[in-house]
Predict the structure.
Amino acid sequence: MELKDNPGEWEGCRTRKLLNPDVFKLTALQAAPLLLGQHLVRRTEDGEIRCRIVETESYGGAEDKGSHAYGGRRTARTEVMFSSGGTAYVYLIYGMYHCVNVVTAAEHDPHAVLIRAVEPLNAADAEMMAAYRGIAVKKAASLSGGPGKLCRALRIDKSLNGYRLDDPGGPLRLEQGEPPETLDIVQAPRINIPYAEEYAPLPWRFYLRGNPYVSVIDKQAQSFHLD
């Protein structure tokens, strides 16, 4: 995989403005497409890594059978989902892979958007991510195309669970990137949630058409247009 710096690329990252807080007030289904094109920033001991979000999944409240908080389930694991929007929800799956979510909506209303794939903003970011993965990356999606992969590449683990994503000095934050309405967005069913029954086929996964970092391409994905 080759990624070259482009001084004119991702001009929005130079402003370093935090994400509009209004996004955090939305339901997960409303927020998921709006997070595409925005920047996930991870501060590490080696410096900051900046990424563009290219794939998300919505987990929409207590009524969603695919959600950890389905039925209003409050446990030590899900408690963070009941926080006010703008909180990071990080959990472990299969005993080995971390996943990072953006909690949205009002306090006590458990909505979360899973970040499924990110794209490094420049070659330096890509190199640091590959070093953290400990692999030689030959394909974009193998670097950060998937929730477990991106968490390893960004050193995201449960120590970041509950951190605010609107803290400019925090270890993990969201910044403004590209206007979502300018992006070519598609929607498709979420990945690997057959237990969600009638909620499983709903098109609540969103990604940027043609982006090489997207984890899974759905040939039947439909175009999505923001109102």
Q: What stands out?
A: The chain is about 15% helix and 25% strand. Residues 194 and 200 are 6 Å apart (CA to CA).
